[in-house]
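Appendix B. Raw example, untouched.
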Amino acid sequence: MRLQHATWQEVEAHLEHSTGIIVPIGSTEQHGPNGPIGTDALCPEAIAWALGERDGVLIAPTQAIGMAQHHLAFPGSLTLRPSTLVAVLRDTIESLAHHGFTHVFFLNGHGGNVATVNAAFAEVFAERSLQREPAGELHLRLFNWFAGRRGRELAASLYGDAEGSHATASEVSLAWHAAPVTVREVPMSPRRAPDGSALCDAHSFRQRFPDGRMGSDPSLASAEHGARFLEAGVEDAREAYQAFVAGS
């Protein structure tokens, strides 16, 4: 069930038997010559929606703008400052906790979000620790779909070292499968982009990676591969979510 499609009565009824929720989170940023700007949000959203339909898990609206300042030299990329994203996530978490959700599982599609999401978790728990009265049960988890075992093994078998670390063939494939209108064939030169660090400002990033790719060859992507990454991603996320709500 998707939260934005439910009535408040349906959510109230859901909470009577389940206090867990999945929040897809990604980014709106360039993904090289052939990847849609929404890739990092499309991928976890597709996995979350499929998991919600399969297991009846409640899925929150996608947080589609993340911490992506290093991509701002590419038109169309959007970012939140880390402090802004922390504030948005704190309010999201506390809103859910206010209604009785005890397990909030963030399904992430963007590596640049990791530090900021963890900082938001720390802020939430610090605020609760500093209250005079116990704030109630709350568990938070960040899971990166692209780091799941099945997805990583599939990417290694299909692309090897050409997978790279940004604008990868795996994420472009999944985005194409999730949104077929985004499929496009674009030549890559060089076929595999150079590697390097994204720990820099936007201008330095574009100098290092002129077409936006990092160590990848997304010309290998296909929507057919994307269907396989969706299945792998659902299984990885399902396993992680079930362990999370079970307390393991």
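End of appendix B.
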